[in-house]
Amino acid sequence: MTISQALPEIQELIELDKKHYLHPTTVPKLFQEKGPKIIFQEGKGIRVTDVKGDTYIDGVSMLWNVNLGHGNQELAKAAYDQLSTIAYSSSFYSYSNPNAVRLAQKVVSVAPGDLSAIFYTSGGSESNDTAFKLARFYWNLKGRKAKKKIISITRSYHGATVSAGSATGIEAFHNFAGSRDIDIINARGHVTNCELGDKTDSNYEGCIRDTIEKVGAENIAAVILEPIQGAGGVHVSPDGYLKAVKELCKANEILLIADEVICGFGRTGKWFGVDNWDVVPDIMSVAKGITSGYAQLGGVMVNKEIRDTLNEHDQILGHGFTYSGHPTACAVALKNLEIIERDNLIENAKNMELVLKNGFEYLANKHKHFTKPRAIGLLAGFDLQADPDTDTPFEQSIRAASFVVEHCFNNKLILRAADFEEGKNIVAIAPPLIINKEEVEEIISIVDDALTAFEKTL
């Protein structure tokens, strides 16, 4: 079928989409006016093709999750083989399946420190909600029933369920439905000196340490952090920050939860984001890259102390999901992790970080509004400012990041803008871990063209 012949069918899809499909993280009114921006049809490697036959570079791995790229036949076969055997079985009531067991052993073997067991979920929001519940339940079993509060930090993103959404430090996500978990507190983030105890620092008020002092450690179950904040704008934890928070938590008998939903499974050039700073959390949330998005799966890893405490509980564990330990999802995950190791994709992510940084240096030398480039593995981003020398942002009406991302899209490159925070224009880049040097340079070339086009509008 030619594109011209397909047009009536595409138009039908657009109209049906507008009529029946409520899209997540989308402006409904605008969607009704314009319809879907793109309808994906197929993918291969780092590229995706829409129903019109146009092909794009997937510069953000869809939602930071397609680590192995698109169209991987080994993952498809792993899913097919399991679907043909037993597609689904329950993990409730002590039921089990070989894939869930073997995957649990595998993820524990590559996890940092004494993380010793995993509770399976269907995705990142469920993982973080579960992490909160397990932290609170652990302290309850220890006779510390008042320890219920969770501290998160500004610019964080932890999911869209009530509790995970409450922990998210992005105000735009708090307005939806007005639902909040009243036991979650958002603290000032990435202020290392404050967490080390410098009360003379102007940012001390509202930091994690200050929050603990005001709320009382006896009331706090856990602190949750992303090693590198993704949706918040690719904000990298400052050197020493994670260790400072870890020591603060340890001194106050508070659990540290690492949200590795985006950072995990090779994205940062290490198995997990915390590995870049040699920090071992007490609890670790995972999802996305565990299956490269080929199946819905997440999990929460806990350390040996928490595992052993839970294992002494002689009543039913009142938490679980229908798809916890889904055999097909676990089969995909096992194959996914096998390929990551076999093809040295974690090393490739680290090598491509250098290529990205070289590209960023080129862009910084050529474009005066390009600033604050950062990349840890293949989790990268940069800012756009009116005057980087004086840290002056663009006026709010100048949507610099959105302009650049839209121009890249028109040139067949999918990137992501983070401009929800006043004064911030951030562009995120996070391609699949299979990307090569030439493909990274192709991304840089398209961004270069978009920056030139943006400058001409000023």
Give the class from helix and strand content and strand pairing.
alpha/beta
Distance between the termini: 44 Å
State Rg: 22 Å
Percent helix range: 25-40%
The low-pLDDT segments are none
Oligomer: single chain
**Strand order within the widest sheet?**
4-12-11-10-7-5-6
**Beta-strand percentage range:** 15-25%
Reported for the largest beta sheet, the result is: 7 strands, mixed
What is the total tally of β strands?
Answer: 17
Features:
458 residues; alpha/beta; 7-stranded mixed sheet; 4-stranded mixed sheet; 15 helices; globular
Give a brief rundown of this model:
This protein has 15 helices and 17 strands.
Structural features, described:
With 458 residues, the protein is α/β, with parallel strands linked by helices. Helix content is 40%, strand content 17%. The protein has 15 helices and 17 strands. The chain has helices at residues 3-20, 28-34, 61-64, 73-86, 98-110, 124-141, 162-167, 192-195, 208-215, 241-251, 304-311, 327-342, 345-366, 400-410, 437-457, and strands at 40-44, 47-50, 55-58, 115-121, 149-153, 184-187, 220-225, 228-229, 235-236, 255-259, 283-286, 298-303, 370-376, 379-384, 413-414, 416-418, 426-429. The protein has a seven-stranded mixed sheet, with helices on both faces. A four-stranded mixed sheet has the order 1-2-3-15. It has a four-stranded antiparallel sheet with strand order 13-14-17-16, covered by helices on one side. β5 (149-153), α7 (162-167) and β6 (184-187) form a beta-alpha-beta unit. α4 (73-86) runs antiparallel to α12 (327-342) and α13 (345-366) runs parallel beside α15. The radius of gyration is 22 Å and the shape is globular. The mean pLDDT is 96.
